[in-house]
Amino acid sequence: MKKLMLILLALCFCVPSLSAAEGKKVLYVCNYYDYIDESVLELFEQETGIHVEYIYTMDNESLLQELEISPAAFDVIFPSDYMVERIIAKDMAAELDFSRIPNAEYTLEYLRNPAYDPENKYSVPYMWGTLGILYNKDMVTGPVTSWADLWDPQYANNVIMMDSLRDTMGIGLKVLGYSMSSTDEEELFAAADKLIEQKQLGIVRAYQLDETKDRMIGGEAALAVVYSGDAWVAAESNDKLDYVIPQEGSNVWVDNMMIPKQAPHYDLALEFINFMCRPDIAQMNSEEIGYSSPNSGAIELMGEEYSGNHIQNPAGEDVDRCEIYHDIPAELLDSLYNPLWNDVMNAR
Amino acid sequence: MRYDVTLPWWAWVLMGLGLAAFAAMVVVSVRRNRGVKRSLFAAPYTLWMIIFTIVPLIIIVYYALTDASGNFTLNNLRDFWDSNYSRRAGASSPAIQARLAARGMSNMEPLLYSLWMAFLCTVICLVLAYPTALFMADRRMKRASSLVILFVVPMWMNVTLRTYAMRILMVDDGPLINFLRLIGFADAQLMDTPTAVLIGMVYNFLPFMIFPIYTVLSKLDPALLEASSDLGASPGRSLIKVTMPLSIPGVVSGITMVFMPAVTTFTLNVMLGGSKRLMLGNLIEQTFTKQNNWNMGSAMSLVMMVLILISLTILRKADPNNEGGGL
């Protein structure tokens, strides 16, 4: 009797793992946490009968690590621009058969043929956004238009910069007129010195990442560097806040859908990507996540409230001034970017 | 609904069987009251400790003493003290290395800053905690237990939540700043300053100082104080000559329990200090997560662990019998 009880007890622990779908077609999709409207997956299963096994990953770096360990583990992945570049360079990307992704036609004109995938052979944009300045209209004296405003002494102790190497070094480079993906030694030293100058002038209130949004909503600083997605959420909660893409240009980032070269279900993956590009589905995802949609069909469906919003849907010429980050070689990150960034963070 | 914890079925079975076997063992040994050794009861914890304490420690030491391709090296440790670790990057030219070195690139800065802040935090905690513990341990104090609860309750809350509450207190138009302005400090600012980090540290770690001292003091034999008073000592003299020396084990234990977490602080620096100065904890975190350099990060952790170990050994001399609970 006791033995039976024990076996039953042991069986109780096994039940969760037996519930996985069997006999169905299965697709392995790897994405980040909170980065999809999950009901989309059920819709896909209803319409196509394909079960999506949805696997979470933390960020681009962990995605690459997992992909390198088991190259055939995923059918669809969601890398950012620079990671697309790296995955293509590592010859780990499958060419997409665009004749079977007719919905890719909805992709916004200015997001096509990006620098990270110049012939647009491997990737389809999923979400995108910009880097810019969020400012409090009551706390600034004139119009905010330029990165140089972040060096204006009248905003002393009133600027929140980003605690993020690529973005903040990028701003230091951009304000001096260089590319945000510079690999030039002189330019990088100059950018770091510019950022140290900003800190030593007492202009920087803090270097933050996740906290910025709440602090700006609370009116704790006049200016802050943010991503457009955060800017939109902040402006929704505090109507004194507005967002600008500086005139010098800025970073535009794009997260993409891709198929790894060794994906076990290439055909189903194409079907999934096409489904994700369908305007109503793209709309569901964009509304759930709050980032900008690259899908013109979805933008139309979301109506005036979205398309008239310059944070979510910036003018094409603003985006044209922006640049997509290039992948910085690991050796250069190690030898220059990281030490210079530590120097900025250590400066007093 | 999917489970985030996905273990293969046999892992669940093994865990179930292991649990059942252990339960059976306990029941049997308790009933028969013989046969099974007492030390076996510690088996689950020993196993836990081996997996989650010893193994990670070995991994850290391994990473600290190897380079990116897994070969043995002492360069990580050398580079840390050399305070210009960019030289490890093979690709960088001697010219760049010289330029970086000329800028005084330094890991010492965060290390010294962390040690200094931890020192200040420990001193402030001690100054605040000792009288409080004395007060709580006083037998004439009827409400000591409710005071104890008052100190324990905040510890039930998550550290991050507590820190958010501190931010509300310390923001520029918050109650604390408004009060400071009222009494004449027009330019008062707390958020994004080292002072805010220090306040946060003291707030978070104070209970770890109070309780060891309180425990030792409340176990103090009252006859000793009566005797010293009978022999003509004033209450103040009794405090200095009797209570304080006897409470040293508690103080030592408190100091270690505050200093150790204080030295490794990094979230408070981000949430209250605005990351305007790197602390050693931030540097380690950044080295692991943003620079993806596990070897250097492990070397830094190792250095920190050794520093803590050294300070513990020194402190232990003051409490040779582990009366304060020891650590």
3D architecture notes:
The complex is a heterodimer of chains A (348) and B (327). Chain A contains 13 helices and nine strands. Chain A is an alpha/beta fold. In chain A, strands 4, 5, 6, 7, 8 and 9 form a six-stranded mixed beta sheet that branches. A three-stranded parallel beta sheet of chain A has the order 2-1-3. The N and C termini of chain A lie far apart (73 Å). By secondary structure, chain B is an all-alpha fold. Chain B has a domain at 108-316: MetI-like (MetI-like fold), CATH 1.10.3720. Chain B has 14 helices and no strands. In chain B, α5 (108-137) crosses α13, α9 crosses α11 and α13 (280-289) runs antiparallel to α14 (294-316). The two termini of chain B are 43 Å apart. The chains are: A alpha/beta (348), B mainly alpha (327). Chains A and B meet through α1, α6, β6 and α13 of A and α1, α4 and α13 of B.
Task: Give the arrangement of secondary structure elements.
The complex is a heterodimer of chains A (348) and B (327).
Chain A: H1 2-18, E1 25-32, H2 39-48, E2 50-57, H3 60-69, E3 76-77, H4 81-89, E4 124-136, E5 159-162, H5 165-175, H6 185-200, E6 204-208, H7 212-217, E7 223-227, H8 228-237, E8 241-244, E9 252-257, H9 266-276, H10 279-289, H11 296-307, H12 316-321, H13 330-346
Parallel strand pairs in A: 1-2, 1-3, 5-6, 5-7
Antiparallel strand pairs in A: 4-7, 4-8, 4-9
Helix pairs in contact in A: 5-6, 6-13, 10-11
Chain B: H1 9-32, H2 43-64, H3 75-82, H4 94-102, H5 108-137, H6 144-152, H7 159-170, H8 175-182, H9 194-218, H10 222-230, H11 235-263, H12 267-271, H13 280-289, H14 294-316
Helix pairs in contact in B: 2-14, 5-9, 5-11, 5-13, 9-11, 10-11, 13-14
